[in-house]
Amino acid sequence: MHSQIKWLIPLALTCFNIGSNLQKAAANTIFPFDTVYDTELTITPIPDSDVVKAFVTATNSNAPYGLTNFTSENYSRIDPETGIGTFSANPEDLGLDPAVFPFLSEEYFGSGDDKLFGFSKATAVFDFENLTVSGRGTINITGGAGRFIGATGTLTFTQEDEFNPNPTAPIVGEAFISGSFQVPHQIPEPRDTFGLAIGVVGSGLFLQKRRKSILKR
């Protein structure tokens, strides 16, 4: 009996170590995200301010993970002399009172339950002669839904648009997004793998006892 216990204990410890290593390896899953969306940008002036609210709707029927749509809101100030526009979800970046103007956000979604939440920040150059807009920025992923609960990550994007001189018409273009985000997995408690090890020892002792019982017959 003593010799059986001696070989079962290393086996149990091995099971425990394997379980611990598997926990660390499965802690996060990384999702690459590289795609292009067709976009429409609508700009709405904020009364008594040189700041506008920019609202983007976007679609791509072949977007990764079924996230075929996204919407994005930002505050923006466009310098009419240089044509440079600053976009931010944070009202304080544009000198607005956060008690009056909320922090804005964006959402990636499709027909299912999977979603990504976040916010963005960007700069863009408005070429009023050629009626084009070129921009670039970052998207911070801060959460999600469905299989993307707890998602975090940083994406980068570039934007190429053409706009109508009519200020009420939407600006159409494309957003090129690249990067990745990660989703945490629930890590089993250490007692689960320890329980597995104890189970191995218990099973071994039971089989040894049963073997002796059979031999006595």
Please supply descriptive tags for the structure shown above:
ten-stranded antiparallel sheet, alpha+beta, 217 residues, single chain, AOC barrel-like
Describe this structure in words.
- The protein is an alpha+beta fold and 217 residues long.
- The protein folds into 2 domains: 2-27 and 188-216; 28-184, AOC barrel-like, CATH 2.40.480.
- The chain is built from 2 helices and 10 strands, in the order αββββββββββα.
- The protein has helices at residues 2-25, 190-216; strands at residues 28-32, 35-45, 52-59, 69-78, 84-88, 106-109, 115-127, 132-145, 152-162, 171-184.
- Strands 1, 2, 3, 4, 5, 6, 7, 8, 9 and 10 form a 10-stranded antiparallel sheet that branches.
- A hairpin with a 6-residue loop joins strand 8 (132-145) and strand 9.
- Helix 1 packs antiparallel against helix 2.
